[in-house]
Amino acid sequence: MAQHLQDTTALHNGINMPWLGLGVFQVEEGSELIQAVKSAIAHGYRSIDTAAIYQNETGVGQAVKEALQDNNLSREELFVTSKVWTADMGYEETIAAYEASLAKLGLEYLDLYLIHWPVKGKYKETWRALETLYKEGRVKAIGVSNFQMHHLEDVMKDAEIKPMVNQVELHPYLSQQALLSFCKEQGIQLEAWSPLMQGQLLDQPVLKQIAAEHGKSVAQVIIRWDLQRGIITIPKSTKEHRIIENVDVFDFQLTEEDMNLINALNQDQRVGPDPDNFDF
């Protein structure tokens, strides 16, 4: 269980991945993005999650470069994730997409590369490309995003290498308990995107009550709930005070009763697309 912002968990290939990171979904290229990433790294974050489709890899790369210098860190101390978009799926296309992401980020390797969505008829070839990149030592870890159990089972039927991570929408209204149990059995690390349901849960009465009892914010309670369930989480914020607040979660513990109350909020409700029914 994470005790500190820089604590990591070992993926099934032995690579250490931080429990907490900064997501940059819907943050446009520009000074706000660069400042957010630099601020997060200055305040101790060591994991940054982007994707080709976010169209901000260039800014993330610039921020990473500046933050490494400013904080006297080596590249190896950071964990950078990106993802291959649906339009770039397929074997050769994925290899090219990886090259393009590295070039934009200005990095020599990624720590984690994910298939962004399970496009029917394409994700197996895409996975084969990720396996190639991994076997060539060009990426430290590979995984998937938005995969349901049946997608994982399907990819693993032919895979030489099991996905190391599955990053999915996960928050108290979409607790993903069955998927979490499956991933734990398979040694696949579950990671939450949109853990705060894009801010929609910040006035949730049960969460507000639990937060008040602990003298914490609702965001901190949700992030703590993720960590206590063994889930990596990447809350997104561009505001420095929120970037700091979101990871101030190591000085309290949710009780079993708290955990059960939060688990009971599940409604299988998504803010993002349904992985079984999307058209992009």
TrEMBL record:
EC number, as in UniProt: 1.-.-.-
UniProt KW keywords: Oxidoreductase
InterPro entries assigned to the protein according to its UniProt record, in alphabetical order: AKR (IPR020471), AKR5G (IPR044500), Aldo/ket_reductase_CS (IPR018170), NAD(P)_OxRdtase_dom_sf (IPR036812), NADP_OxRdtase_dom (IPR023210)
Ranges of residues in domain NADP-dependent oxidoreductase: 20-266
Magnesium keyword on record: no
Enzymatic class: oxidoreductase
MF GO annotations: oxidoreductase activity
Top-level lineage group: Bacteria
CDD domains to which the protein is assigned, alphabetical: AKR_AKR5G1-3
TM spans (from-to): none
Gene3D superfamilies, per database record: NADP-dependent oxidoreductase domain
Pfam families, per database record: Aldo_ket_red
Protein name, as recorded: Oxidoreductase YtbE
